[in-house]
Design a protein that fits this description.
Number of helices: 10
Number of domains: 2
Radius of gyration: 19 Å
CATH superfamily of the largest domain: Thiolase/Chalcone synthase
Shape: globular
Helix content: 25-40%
Number of strands: 13
Largest sheet: 5 strands, mixed
CATH architecture of the largest domain: 3-Layer(aba) Sandwich
Distance between the termini: 19 Å
Order of helices and strands: EEHHEHEHEHEEEEHEHEHHHEE
């Protein structure tokens, strides 16, 4: 029987500080009704502390997996970190996470596909497993979005939060695991959702800081329209390719970008709302962490063999869907 990559453990980490809509009312011209009606968000978590980057959240998530599965750090073959907010331009945040967790016999690297990174990473990690080369791969989805958000911009500051989550992937011949994926991108979407400065095209200068070019720029209406269309298309495509219908799917796990996007996609596809995982009201958009955070929160409700579709959309533009059968 062919080898499939199966998720065999899930964990997450959330910072302690809760940034509520009420607190945001004192920071920017907004209110709870305005935020909730447009995004579905009531609160989000923020990582506080000097010098604390994305790895600060990822490390405890990874250590939870090691403890839960009774694994030594030396058992890990590969660690991938999916993030849009690395600790540093280099080295990779995955390298830093591995070092802090004592993982010395693996190689590690980062993937940046904005909010779609975790699905891109899941597809990538699964190929290493399916090849037979590696037995234990940890995939992290983590972002400290508060580091690149302008808290004077009410269009973006209400949306994003900080979090990390991780999964362990192992080979399986049971038939359960990652079945198929549809992943796509369109670089012309850059203009609608990006962070202009900080890279080699626009290195940091006094001017880029003064012009607030290191913060997220988003044109919400343009992003919304493309996101709904593309996510719907890729979910329908992966179902059609695998001969399943909306009624066959046990759980739909969408990226938690905006409740309106989630609801609009589901209006087109028609999943039972009770099968759609939503926690955006508690955490906001944690970018690469949203999907694994949902997996961790709902894992006690999942049953072995459940058919699950993951779907995402991110800046750039990037988007995709993955079909898997739950193996735990």
């Amino acid at each position: 029987m062919s080898i499939k990559a199966s998720i065999t453990a899930v964990s997450s980490y959330l910072p302690d500080f809760v940034l509520t809509n009420k607190i945001l009312e004192s920071m920017v011209d907004t209110n709870d009704d305005w935020i909730f009606s447009r995004t579905g968000i009531r609160e989000r978590r923020i990582l506080k502390g000097e010098g604390k980057g994305t790895s600060e959240m990822a490390v405890p998530a990874v250590k939870k997996i090691l403890a839960e599965k009774n694994l030594s750090p030396d058992d890990i073959d590969l660690l991938i970190c999916c993030t849009a907010t690395p600790d540093h331009v280099f080295p990779a945040t995955a390298n830093i996470i591995s070092d802090k967790c004592g993982i010395k016999k693996a190689f590690s690297f980062d993937i940046n596909a904005a909010c779609s990174g975790f699905l891109y990473g899941l597809a990538t990690a699964s190929k290493f497993i399916q090849s037979g080369m590696y037995k234990k791969v940890i995939l992290v989805g983590a972002d400290k979005m508060s580091a690149i958000i302008d808290y004077e911009d009410r269009q973006t500051c209400v949306i994003f939060g900080d979090a990390a989550a991780a999964v362990l992937l192992e080979p399986s011949t049971s038939g359960y695991g990652i079945i198929d994926e549809v992943l796509q991108s369109d670089g012309s979407g850059f203009q609608y959702l990006h962070q202009k400065a900080g890279g080699s095209a626009f290195p940091p200068t006094v001017e880029t800081v003064e012009n607030k070019e290191h913060f997220v720029h988003q044109e919400g209406k343009s992003v919304f329209k493309v996101a709904v269309n593309k996510v719907t298309e890729c979910v329908e495509a992966v179902m059609q390719r695998n001969g399943i219908t909306k009624d066959d799917v046990d759980w739909f796990v969408p990226h938690q970008a905006n409740i309106r996007i989630i609801e609009s996609v589901n209006e087109r596809i028609g999943f039972d709302p009770a099968k759609v995982t939503v926690n955006i009201q508690k955490y906001g958009n944690t970018t690469n962490a949203t999907i694994p955070l949902c997996l961790d929160e709902w894992k006690d409700k999942f049953k072995k063999g459940d058919k699950i579709i993951l779907a995402t959309f991110g800046g750039g533009f990037t988007w995709g869907a993955i079909y898997l059968e739950w193996a735990i």
